[in-house]
Specification:
4 copies of one chain form a homotetramer. By secondary structure, chain A is of the alpha/beta class. Chain A contains 17 helices and 15 strands. Chains A, B, C, D: It is found in: Cytoplasm.
Chain lengths: 416, 416, 416, 416
């Protein structure tokens, strides 16, 4: 069997990791049972570029159990868990081509490798695989593909608009059960986890400034309050600012918040929302963390320029001495604090994303003859099915509508 | 001056009510200053069918201050505050045709009355005025109209689809600053207020069952928790149910919740979500309230059928003795508990709706030559302006984007 | 049968009120069953001065069911519910001497009246009955008495110290199940209820200033936060201030809070915590309410002196126009807002106080031969029994210690 | 200079750690300035047995700055941070005798070592130093000592009762600013931190069972709720159980909670509160953690006996396969999860304990001639001063009483 991983002897440790993840991914496991009993993917080849983690293992093991042959490369040179990769090869017969610390060249080689097997379906996390296919593997007869990230979706939509997209793609990122829970619940918790691991500060009594009141910001703000912080929200949208205010948070511009915050967390998707000038207004000891996707939200470059001295205090905590004598502490160099300083999303959150992935692949396999070469949202009924299976896996039953109610609601479609 | 109100001598009391309302409606007052200094509605006649309350007074006084002539009838035979009506006539020169307890005939006569003045713009709350115009006053040359409610909007959309709509209408109901705050913040608080006034029960320690996790349900659930209740959410949508669960609420079907709840509040927009059978499962002493728009959510008819005895315990609290010997308590006969047992939305909430009304009228006046005979949502910039003015009126400044940020965000339109 | 009430024909309405109260007083009802089956108070005469409310009715009906003869006078000329008084006479054979609006002379006459019957036990709410006995009825051979309030306890402790106390008294006020739940849970909710009934303002988005972070202040602060307010705590004790801060509230002195608050609620037990000078710093529209026992916390006298104009806007809401042109709104003239503008404690809270009363009377009857003429706290096991019965009445079972655990905990008495 | 540490070359790393701690210990730093400017401890020798951490470094540096000579040994063979020890020796001239991994013999040798210098004051954490003095160093003329822990205080109180205590001791553990913040705020946060580091589970949506509703349990319960868990409290005290219920938590005995919990956290101070039998009732995947002082709360021994298989899944997470086929996960072998799997109390919390230590030493030095050979609580004014300095260090000003208020409150000492 073809594969390329670091060390097969790590397989037993990897197996335990996968079991731990699957223990917390009931929706995906229930989809596995369903797809597996019908052998829904029998004879299907799937090539996937994903972070090779224990949660991804749960996904590809599901696809495999449904009958597919799986070829898996890593979507980031640093994110592969070598023990998990080994377990997938040794115990599951999955063709993994990934290892932690692979070079840029290795990364592309591995992507090329998994495309050699003429997949029917491709899965991507970031859009590099889709781009490579459009460039060099235009002859593969693909049923379709999926894309996990916003960034990837933007690239694919551009292709769609230019009329050059070669196959239908389902944008898993846009599923309600993905973005809402990933952002609010997943990042909401893991950002705080990252801050605590990096600093071991006490949240209670601190003034925390959350920049951006989108889904990520909301999750962080509510959890910081739940741990005893006084929370200030900084927002550019008056609508979101008004929501924050009505949710009980203080709202002000950064120039004012900068002077009173103890802890700053950015989640805007925008650039330099904490600027050099803001930093110079801050109190001695202020802590800066980013929970947004890209490391552009805090002006790290500007901060480095003005710093008189920089030193590492703890892992992921760097002290910047400012010209005014104050010290501020930047976590994880302004990168996503939950990924850098903690462990990213818990398995429970990935359960939702990856259930959407598995059912989206199923949708493609079933409907590839009829769907067009476009970028599709995850169909609402898949989204609802994922939520339903998640609830069921957590032991939760929900209400069902009576026939009378179905009739009634059809007539009056007003929102409560 | 033409008018028809109950008693002009109530004008001084009405004036105080209006002042109290306006004290809590800073966004509308700031719009008043703006429209008034430009005399934006000079020469414009506006006929409006609205609940004649102190908050509506603040709205029509704004339109008047901007130069309009106002003809106002009540949108419900019972909702007119006679002192407010008197003050509008006496101190503001507004042509009011409304009194509390007017008959059905009076109600229609008053609507006919205000249409005699050939208005340029009409404002409605429920759609009866729009219907009357389409039936009997087709010759009025209207710039356009506004509609406050979902019900009215549904009727107007039906007309639009059939191609019979005579003038453009702005659906104020669909503004973000209306539905979100009305529902979550306004009803969230006032429903609890109504329950307390009706029953004087202690919320802390109770098991509260919130049926429906839309915006109203969310508002109620979070406030009940804030007062110490254990809250169970009943939902038919797995997506909303999963959100409720991740927000920390228990989730179960009504058949299970019925057995353990002390207090039940419905907010689904659907019929019989608490059925006779559910009621028979309930504990002795269970309390039932409705916070949804129509009094269909609790099966009151069924309850009355099975009741062995019914008696009024307190205003808005009726005891139903069931065949099984238990007693349950229905509040306000299953009608909207916040309107029936408390005072409906606080002025602060109406400030948002009515600011949208005022700016929508302004939009119609300015753009009536170019807009089509369709039902429009409130333009986003009006919605944002309302939020902005509300924040400003509350003394809140928000962040503004730098040029660099505006450029950056244009390229990457990803949601956080 | 001797009695003196306003109108016996109100008895049926009173009976319904009592039933409604008893529905929410499961602990007391369970004590009733217990004392009643043993006829614990057979032959005992009890004279009580209490607010003649539906909850007090539940208490005296319990004492009566246990075999006692009851003579009841009101503890406040305004607090008697005449329908409840009538029901107690007509349906329960309780000798009530009380009516709403009785004069000061009536009040004392009624107290004298109930002492004529040579009671074995007396119950008081404020200490006037105890004082009268010590002055004029020194020959009554009392087993003992109870006292509901702090004020009364202070008076009795003074007597005890001077060695003049004639009989043992149990200070019900000091029971954990009384002061903690009365204050934090009861006043916490009912103060907000009173503010909403008086003003109908929206809590969400407001800056609420809670003055005093004792049990009452904590209850109010947490519930205001639960309804969406930003809450500031003003405290003189650094220990309590630090707790407030760690609970996530902002903390500052009144001179600073005065400038930014929208709503002020006092609960300190101290005088003039909101002074004239503070009021002059406030924003236009500020609202002032008191939740402390006495109406001394807001300097109402000073406010009246500086006011240029005073007018009633709504029941319990008075507008004061200040020399600086601002208007502030004082609720219920600075008296306890939950009693004045709402209905005081819910029955669920009185259930705890009055269960302590009933069991304290039982304790006196059982132990009167052995206890001394002192002021006693409610014995811990009564306090715990009340809590246990309350939990049971709410359907809650708690954990029990194993023998092993009882042994272990004896050795190591450390607090978690 | 005498000392014994592992490696002086670690001093620079240690210095950074100490700086990081002191950045978050403003109360202690302010006490340092005060004691240092008066050279309050000039000529005083202090021998201390404490965990040699960065926070302890902040304490002993304070004592040193006030003029004392310091001799420091570790209070636990594993808790010494060697870099901090090195920094104290190299940069502060403190005589440290401690290293990580010292043997039991080393531990006692080091304690003997620091007693050779005939200290005037001793500080202890657990009582071993006090015991050693009473056994072997009875001739040292001590002004007095302090004790940090409950365990130590129990041992000293036993000595006091037997009349054998040789010098006065201040029980720092009993300070309000110690036990309340240590337990509720410190352990409340760090227990959750430990659970997340050990497991990386998602809190939101989980059923968390908190066993014990003392200060630790309250802190944990409120923070788990703040992160989206449904929280059940298990309690043996009806008073605490009723509080938990009124705080909005569900309450039930362990036999019922065992069946529905996803995560269990113990904080009772009692033995086997989660027994073998309870564990056999649990769902597959249940997670067990202890936040109480001793590792007796979960019956680990019983669990090991019944387990069919035990394996380590992640650091501090061990899987136990039960006879019924279910798997449960025990964190940190049932030891204090915040110390074992996270970093114990944040510096902000130790700031309070150690400020009490520093001021207690000051109290002993100032009053040693007048105080008796007893165990004293920290005087209230020290407790209040610590709170005040903490608030000040956090930039918080509190209210001060006027003379009028001081007079008023003297007369009426009633609690709100």
């Amino acid at each position: 069997m073809e594969y390329n991983v670091k060390d097969l002897s790590l397989a037993d440790q990897g197996k335990k990791q996968i079991e731990w993840a699957e223990m917390h991914m009931p929706a995906l496991i229930s989809i596995r049972q369903q797809l597996s009993s019908s052998q829904a993917f029998k004879g299907i080849r799937i090539s996937a570029v994903l972070h090779v983690t224990k949660e991804t293992a749960a996904l590809v093991r599901t696809l495999k159990a449904a009958g597919a042959d799986i070829y898996l490369a890593g979507s980031n040179p640093l994110s592969t868990q070598d023990d998990v990769a080994a377990a997938l090869v040794k115990y599951d017969g999955i063709h993994v081509f990934a290892w932690k610390g692979e070079s840029e060249t290795d990364y592309y080689n591995n992507m090329n490798e998994i495309l050699k097997y003429e997949p029917n379906v491709v899965m991507d996390d970031g859009g590099d695989l889709h781009a490579l296919i459009h460039e060099k593997y235009r002859n593969i007869k693909l049923f379709g593909g999926t894309e996990e990230t916003t960034t990837g979706v933007i690239r694919l939509k551009a292709m769609e608009e230019q009329g050059v997209l070669l196959y239908p793609v389902i944008a898993v990122n846009n599923a309600f059960t993905k973005y809402l829970f990933d952002n609010r619940v997943g990042t909401g918790q893991s950002a705080i986890d990252g801050i605590l691991r990096a600093t071991n500060i006490l949240i209670a009594g601190k003034v925390a400034v959350v920049v951006g009141y989108g889904w990520v910001g909301r999750g962080i703000a509510s959890r910081l309050r739940g741990m005893g912080a006084r929370v200030i929200v900084v927002e550019v949208s008056p609508l979101r600012a008004l929501e924050a205010l009505m949710d009980g948070f203080d709202v002000m511009p950064m120039k004012d918040a900068a002077k009173i915050g103890d802890l700053f967390v950015t989640a805007t998707g925008n650039i330099n929302v904490i600027s050099k000038d803001h930093i110079l207004l801050m109190k001695n000891g202020a802590i800066l963390a980013n929970a947004g996707h890209f490391n552009v939200e805090i002006d790290v470059k500007g901060l480095k320029e003005i710093a008189k001295n920089i030193r590492t205090i703890r892992p992921y905590t760097e002290e910047y001495e400012l010209p005014n004598g104050n010290k501020v502490y930047l976590l994880a160099d302004g990168r996503l604090v939950n990924l850098a300083a903690a462990e990213g999303h818990p398995s429970e959150v990935m359960d939702l994303s990856f259930s959407n992935q598995a059912l989206s692949v199923d949708y493609i396999v079933k409907n590839h003859l009829s769907i067009e070469k476009r970028v599709y949202n995850v169909p609402l009924d898949i989204d609802e099915q994922v939520a339903f299976l998640k609830l069921k896996g957590m032991g939760i039953e929900i209400e069902t509508m009576t026939e009378e109610q179905k009739e009634y609601i059809k007539q009056w479609k007003y929102g409560t």
